[in-house]
Amino acid sequence: SVVCQSYKKSYQKEDRLEKRKLANMFHDALVPFAERRTIKMKTLYLHIGTQKTGTTSIQSFCGDNAAVFEKKGYCYPIFPYKYPRVVKERNGHFLVGAVKDEKGQIFEGEDKKIFEDGMKRVADLFLQYDNVVLSDEHIWRNTFERRKSLWEELKKHGEENGYRVQIIVYLRRQDQYAISLWNQTVKTSVTKAGAKRFDEYIENVPKVYQLDYYKKLESIAKVLGKDAITVRRYERDHFYGGSIYADFLHAINLELTDDFKIVRGDRNFGLQGNTHEIKRVLNSLPEMLDADVNHFFRQTLLSISQTSAKEYQTSMLSAEETEEFMQKYEEGNQAIVRVF
Questions:
Q1: What is the pLDDT of residues 314-334, one digit of tens each?
Q2: What pLDDT is stored for residue 74 in this prediction?
Q3: Fewest CB atoms within 10 A around its CB: which of 62, 133, 190, 324?
């Protein structure tokens, strides 16, 4: 995996950050405010999800094309922080990730140390690159409570280090999002939660997923401003250039040219047809609490998922149920179109 050039060298010379602050102060003293607003600022592009909107494919694509990004003045860095079940291409996870011990208990204060170290590295990257790109789908959900101060922290850090923050978020229709989240729970869970029926799940979708999209976006806009949020519609017919890769690049002011390579293609397939119902029933068995056993059945079902989708076409909600479910979000969704 290619990492940004600055990480091929040892991370040192902390005084460079102080020099940058002094340079910014000197620049501000000489350039009138009206002119300063027209000067292109460096940009931290932060892709925050949501989950189940092609995030794994986007992250794999960015990681595979890190060298191409560099040539265009962008950096998609790979940091040294490690979290269970979090791939290295999720390079923005340090912003919201909790550090836990073997029993799942959070190491108090350790996540703050990693966050501060990561932000120092981001500031250092801006000494060499005009644009830095970070991505992690858990930013959307983890800023619901535990890391809700993130937006203020990023704004402050950007002001101190001469860059602006641009949020990129992909949204899909709430009914489709809820179905996909349930599918993912059934597919991957090694707890009894994976045995929950869809009608039980849809009645009480966990609040952290924040299906009231407008309310969530409004809370971010109060800190960063609405112009700092790029909302993309997660529907293939609406992708710029016809693909998620071209669409994401366009969102960060790049185009999908021939020098970009799609190495790994689509990632993180869901269970389809009746395979997710088979997995849900299996999840109720005590043997499925064994991670290896669970993995075996998951991979077996995934291998026949596409065939099952053709033979057993299913829909979790009827047209009437879909309309009723979506009515709760209609006003907010219309506001997103108007405001963002």
A1: 788 999 999 999 999 999 999
A2: 98
A3: 324
Residue 21, Cβ density class (10 Å: 0-12 exposed, 13-18 middle, ≥19 buried): middle
DSSP, res 260? S
| Nearest-angstrom CA–CA distance, 174 and 330 | 10
Return the number of other C-beta atoms located less than 10 Å from residue 91's C-beta: 27
Q: How far is the C-alpha of 215 from the C-alpha of 144, rounded, in Å? A: 11
Amino acid at 261: K
In the prediction, which pLDDT does 154 show?
98
Strand-pairing partners, residue 44, are 132, 165
pLDDT digits (tens, 9 = 90+) for 170-192: 999 999 999 999 998 999 888 88
Residue 76 in contact with residue 66, Cβ under 8 Å? Answer: yes
- Rounded to an integer, what is the distance from CA 168 to the centroid of its chain? 9
Query: What one-character DSSP code corresponds to residue 40?
Result: P
CA distance 157 to 170: 25
Q: Return contacts of 203-208, CB within 8 angstroms, 24+ apart.
A: 205/178, 205/181, 207/144, 208/141, 208/142, 208/144, 208/145
Q: In this structure, what token pair is assigned to residue 234? A: 């997660």
